[in-house]
Structure prediction request, 215 residues.
Amino acid sequence: MQIETNGILVKLRPFNERDAIAHIFTCDNGMLVGLLRGGVVAKKNKPLVGQCGHLSWNARLDSQLGVFHFENEKNLSAPLMLNADLLKIMNAVFSLVVALVPERESYEDLYAKTFELLSNLSGVAKPYDLYLNWEIYLLRDLGYALDLTKCSGCQKTENLRYLSPKTGRAVCRDCGAPYMDKLYKLPVDLNVTKRFIDNVCKEHGIEIPISRKIL
Prediction:
C-alpha cells in the first residue's frame, strides 16, 4: 500500500538509535503514523516537528507500520520559536490533532485551517483569538459543532447568553434563566472550548493533553 500526499510533521519520537516514529497530519488522509529511517541521526535535512512538505507512506499491508519518505519544504514552527505564547499554541495544536484526529481519514478542512493558523500566528495581534477559531473548527470536524446562531429553546436570535454543554447550542437569557448553573456563559472563549475538548477526550478514553491544559 502506498500513499502520496502533503502534510505537517506534528510528532516525532525515537524508535531506536537511528530511526524515529513520526506522526504526520495530512491534507487528505488525516493522521499518518510511520517510521522515518535515520530520523534520529540525520544531520542534513533533519526532520523537525513543524515542518511541512510532500511525503510518501509505504507498507506491505494496510495494518502494518508504514515507512515515510518526507521532503521538507517549509518549517512552519521557525517563526514561532522565540515567542513563548506562540510556541504554547503550536504545541497545543499538535497534541490535539495527534490525540483526536483518526488515522487515514480525510480532514481536509481542518488541515487547511491548521496550515493557515500556523502560517499566520506570528503576524497577528491577538494569536489566541486565531487559535480559538481553530479549536471551534476542530470540534466541528470531530462532530461537535457549536451553533451560536439562535436559541435552542425558542429559536430567537437575540439575547443569546448561554451555551448548552450537552448540545453545543446557544440558549437565550429567558430560556436559560432556570438552568444558569448548568450552562456555559457566552461569548465562547478558550475555557469553554476546553470543556468540550475535555469531554471529547473522555469519550475517547484519554486525558486532555497537558499542553492544552496549561494554555
In short: Residues 27 and 184 are 33 Å apart (CA to CA). Residues 84-100 form the longest helix (17 residues). The radius of gyration is 19 Å. The domain at 1-75 is CATH 2.40.50.140 (OB fold (Dihydrolipoamide Acetyltransferase, E2P)).
